[in-house]
Amino acid sequence: MLKHRGFPGRLPGTDYQFTIRRPNPKGVTEIIRRERFRDRKAADRRADSAFMEALWYHFGEEPFERGNLDAGRLSWLFGREVVPAEEPFDPESYEALLRIDADVARQTFPEAFE
Known about the structure:
Number of strands: 3
Order of helices and strands: HEHEEH
Helix content: 25-40%
Number of helices: 3
């Protein structure tokens, strides 16, 4: 599992996790598309925005390996702002390649690109 050095481990001052420390011994957690409803807490929305900002800062529009990025946090963006960068895509692989759909991400999280 690739560890993304310099990537923030969590949203400062919260327990919102951005990375994992070690591979899951029970198997890789699958990345799924989670629905974001309008009534989500402000802290959840802040975590999504901060995570998108960190992804953009570290990877830009280049494809990146999932590595130690948290599957739960990726799942909130997957299928919209973060999309597969390879076919076939394996959502249960630490080596899976992803990329940011910059147009969608800028529209959803404009503050992450300032």
